[in-house]
Amino acid sequence: MATEYGRAGVLGMLTPQANTTVEPEFRALLPPDWAMINARLTSARGSIEERLVDYADRFAETCGQFANAPLSAIAIGCTGASYLIGREAEARILAGIEARHGVPVYSAATAVVAAMRALAARRIGLVSPYPEGLDAACAAYWEGHGLTVTAKAAVGAETAAFHPIYAMAGAACLDALRSLQGGDCEAVILLGTGMPTLAPLLAVAGRGGPPAISCNLALAWAACDGARAETLPAWIAGAGWGDRLARLYPAALGAET
After folding, report:
1. Pick from 241, 219, 177: which is nearest to 19 by CA?
2. Gap between the Cα atoms of 131 and 156, Å rounded
3. Which of 87-108 are b and which e, b meaning 16 or more Cβ less than 10 Å from the residue's Cβ?
4. Could you give the percent of the chain with pLDDT greater than 70?
5. What whole-number distance in Å separates Cα of residue 77 and Cα of residue 199?
6. Taking a C-beta distance cutoff of 8 angstroms, is the pair 67, 39 a contact?
């Protein structure tokens, strides 16, 4: 069934409750004639780790908010939960959602893994906004998928902000990304769906060095293109979405030099 908005596809997105980055970035990332409907992942748990696990426990339940909407794919805009529950539990949950809704389902983490395979990249560098505990779980998750973390750059945050990751500036992400461009990694992953990443990705695209990809970019590519390897280079280069980002959020691009 085609809808008036979303003739090419309708994406069902799960977004963490206070995340202010997924929806704006996907507004730029989604190709023409794609639409997105959103459901919020909510939890009253006290720590970030507890909330992330709680989100994962209720991924399938939250997808119920989409009811019988004619979705083309479901995307889970949350990476940290995947690290904490592990790849096997994640695979079971995603398979259950696919069976129920009859469409492909990608977490941000599985989309990144698909991107690394499409790039034939095994040695990776990480740009990380995470606290120490989540960083350790993150590295173990990627290594469980056959990837080797060869370098890492941390992105600092203002701890007084409403949420340190969501309040980060793209310039800080870009500085960390540039610090890994001369390393021996085969690809650089900008971690987390809450850290603003699109302007930094455009700033390094085509400048040499290993290809860089963020969790949101990988998730958009996988969900919209079915993780087709031949289309990934254009996504990394900013084809289409770079111009949309400039029109929608010129201030973000103006801050990246």
Report:
1. 219
2. 10
3. beebeebbeebeeebebbbbbb
4. 93
5. 19
6. no
Q: Are strands 212-214 and 187-190 parallel, antiparallel or unpaired?
A: parallel
Query: Which residues fall within 8 angstroms of residue 102, CB to CB, at 6 or more apart?
Result: none
Does the pLDDT value for residue 244 go beyond 90?
A: yes
Distance CA 178, CA 156 (A): 15
Whole-angstrom distance, CA of residue 96 vs CA of residue 89 = 11
Its pTM stands at: 0.93
pLDDT at 13: 98
**E strand spans, 83-225:** 105-107, 123-128, 148-154, 187-190, 212-214
- Rounded distance between C-alpha atoms, residue 196 and residue 143, angstroms: 25
| Mean pLDDT to the nearest integer, 233-237 | 98
- pLDDT bin (cut points 50, 70, 90) of residue 235 is very high
pLDDT at residue 257, rounded to an integer = 44
